[in-house]
Amino acid sequence: MLASILNAVEDELSGVPFDLTKWQSDGRMYPPQDDSKRQVPGYSNVTRFRSRGHNTFICTNGAIEIAEVGGAVLLRKSGVDGKHVWET
Amino acid sequence: MGNLTAVDQLNSQITKRLHDARVTVDHPAAPEGHWWIDVEHQGYVVSVEFRADHGFGVCGPDGGYGEGPDVVVPTASAAADYVVAFLAASRLRGEPPVPRELMRNFAEAVGRALEDLIERRLGSAEKELLKKLSTVSKDVKRLEAEVSELTQALLVPPARRQATPAKKMAFDYKKKQRKTVKASRSRSRR
Lengths: 88, 190
Hints:
The structure holds 2 protein chains of 2 kinds.
Chain A: H1 2-13, E1 37-40, E2 43-51, E3 54-59, E4 64-68, E5 73-77
Antiparallel strand pairs in A: 1-2, 2-3, 3-4, 4-5
Chain B: H1 3-17, E1 22-26, E2 35-41, E3 44-51, E4 55-59, E5 71-73, H2 76-92, H3 100-155, H4 165-189
Antiparallel strand pairs in B: 1-2, 2-3, 3-4, 4-5
């Protein structure tokens, strides 16, 4: 969901075509990729995606949390059961 | 070159240039994934993303969500040079450093202060409550005594009511008088 929304917004507003091979230089924003995946100790149902300055946590219930690498939370969305990432 | 070797090389290149830099390696779940190396020096942070097939992507302090690196270089040495350049540029631009440790310490200090405050406020509130309760219990006891006196006064017959000394004296005097009158009447009958 996160990836589809981000890609849709970039398709509409950035004017730069989606091309993962040019992620470093085309100026377009790209959603977290599988190869930036990390495990979260103590939370087997949560996956962390590291990107420039941010960590994106995605839970199996669909909950999403985006935080700065320093720890400040920028976005928190609950999952299908109404629970947030760290409440599951 | 293995991923870990490349990351170690970058680490040592940075340490060579900045002895007091703090280097944190954020390793991926799979070794072939993307590695992140965060370099903190005097409160400024620059991050490097390493991808085996692309090289080192150096990211300055400002960057939005999902943005790529500012510059991509093939060697650890060149990446370390850019790291130093970005850190120096941040200092020259006079951006206020926000050390993560300082932020963490500040957050912890605020947490502790709040806990102390809550504990102290709760403690004083408890003392105040106990004080008020003791006053209330004294008032209740006094009221109970008054109610008991009133009940006694209403339910007990007048003769058995506890009299004041003056009333008792008057009552005793009248009783004595009645006795004297009775005795004189019976004497005159005889």
